[in-house]
Design a protein that fits this description.
The chain is elongated. The chain has a domain of 64 residues: Mitochondrial import inner membrane translocase subunit tim13 like domains (Helix Hairpins, Orthogonal Bundle). The protein is 80% helix and 0% strand. With 97 residues, it is an all-alpha fold.
Length: 97
């Protein structure tokens, strides 16, 4: 399920609150899984030269650094988007006036 479904369902007003909450929780889970997948793919390509039975210390340090930078960047982007949303009027509210 994507966020457009939950947005349109929320706009109907007749949606069961438990169902709406369930959809929101599942959407958050899906987004989290997508972030983990992106992070795994990015860091694997960046840090893994040749797969072996054990990680060497260089690859391990690279993975740790990559994950930390990915999390920092994701948090920065989310904070920036949140600030942008707060500073702009919501389009749907301006239509209802």
């Amino acid at each position: 399920m994507d966020s457009s479904f939950s947005s349109s369902a929320a706009g109907l007003g007749a949606v069961d609150p438990q169902l709406q909450h369930f959809i929101e929780v599942e959407t958050q889970k899906q987004r989290f899984q997508q972030l983990v997948h992106q992070m795994t793919e990015l860091c694997w390509e960046k840090c893994m030269d040749k797969p072996g039975p054990k990680l060497d210390s260089r690859a391990e340090a690279c993975f740790v650094n990559c994950v930390e930078r990915f999390i920092d960047t994701s948090q920065f982007i989310l904070n920036r988007l949140e600030q942008t949303q707060k500073s702009k009027p919501v389009f749907s509210e301006s239509l209802s006036d």
